[in-house]
Amino acid sequence: MPGDIILTGTPEGVILGLPKDEQIYLKAGDEVTVEIEIVGSLTNYFIKEEL
What's the N-to-C CA distance of the chain in angstroms? Predict the structure, then answer.
């Protein structure tokens, strides 16, 4: 419904529970797409903030 908020939580395989040397964080150049059947998809592109 219009105005609904969709929270996705943390996807499988992200940071928590992995050894320090295997922890990979999002960085500039990464792309994340979230897709919900019937609703559609949303893609975010990560860029470095210029101050």
Answer: 38
Question: pLDDT per residue over 6-39, tens digit each?
Answer: 777 776 666 777 888 888 888 999 999 988 899 8
Instruction: Please state the pTM of the whole predicted model.
Output: 0.57
Ramachandran quadrant class, 15 (left: phi over 0; alpha: psi -120 to 50; beta: rest): left
Cα separation of 40 and 38, whole Å?
6
CA–CA distance, 28 with 46 (Å, rounded to integer): 5
For the chain, the domains span 15-51
